[in-house]
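It is worth pausing here to work through a concrete case rather than discussing structure prediction in the abstract. The textbook approach is simple: state the sequence, then state the predicted structure, then interpret. We follow exactly that order.
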Amino acid sequence: MYVPAMKSNPPPAIEVSDIRRALLEHYDRSRRSLPWRDATDPYRILVSEVMLQQTRVETVLGYYGRWLEQFPDLETLAAASEQAVLKAWEGLGYYRRARHLHRAARLVCERPDASLPSTYEELRELPGLGEYTAGAVASIAFGEVVAAADGNVRRVLARLFDERAPKPAWVRRTACALVDPERPGDWNQAMMDLGATICVPRTPRCGGCPVARWCEARAAGTAEQRPVAARRRPPRLTTLVVAALCREGRVLLARRPREGLLGGMWAFPEREISPDDDPPAVAAGIAADLGAALAAGPAPLPAHEHRFTHLHARYLPYLVPVESAEACSETEWVDPAGPTGLALPAAQRRILEAVGDRIGVGAA
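Step two, the predicted structure:
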């Protein structure tokens, strides 16, 4: 077997074998102790891999066990309401992952055997399972000889073969050529661990790397420059006025549209503004659009900022006392001091806490 490196001649098969052996021996000695590492249930492996998409291991550790307590299997998850799923995911971010996982569970339970597909190609047909997640589940849960190349693996490969700006096709081809056919799941996890603990983005710990002797970037002195950072468009800045309508100690929350940013979550009514807008007037206008009769003028609450992948949002919340407001199926009056049972994004949760503090001291 040959590794299709682009800048240098691929190492002979005997070196590929040596690389595999060295990395797997290191993995057997030093692998991270993670609650999903010893799982044999494909569902539990699927949950861990979906949670790990764009999220640090340390964050996932706080959610994985609680999720399995509430949704121990595909059938339980499929039978749950979307709100229950989003509430369990609350704070983990990238909520589309939760909706995709929920939809995937329902699709699987519609299959004749109600079992998770066991091949990469079938897994790719499920919502939310891209190349990496499908490869990880197929190799770890079912032993399929397929690569799982995330950002960590891309960085390891770029350094191993001194590839300046590895393209997705190169990463895919190279990762597939290296997968150990006897232990594909362990191999993929070993590569992930290597990138997460030793071959880190800045100041890689080459002295402790089990494959350092084969690393072309280390030999060339370019390890810290591989791969080159891609130019990213700066996030769009936006300012949003948030209207916390308050009546008899309760505040109004509205369900966001299912599609789009934070789809299906609950939030205070909001409106994007321009520099020429008057925020208190906008807050009053939001209340008027909801058919609310103001009992007093809007009062400012602490501003909050939140960064999404392509958006930097600045929230200007106002407490808006009202005498009445029209009700609809997509709104709920809740006690800001008690559990709402509704899934709220992190920024909205902070605003709700600020509302509770303000009402609690009798300011409204």
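Step three, interpretation. The chain has 14 helices and nine strands. The chain has a mean pLDDT of 91.
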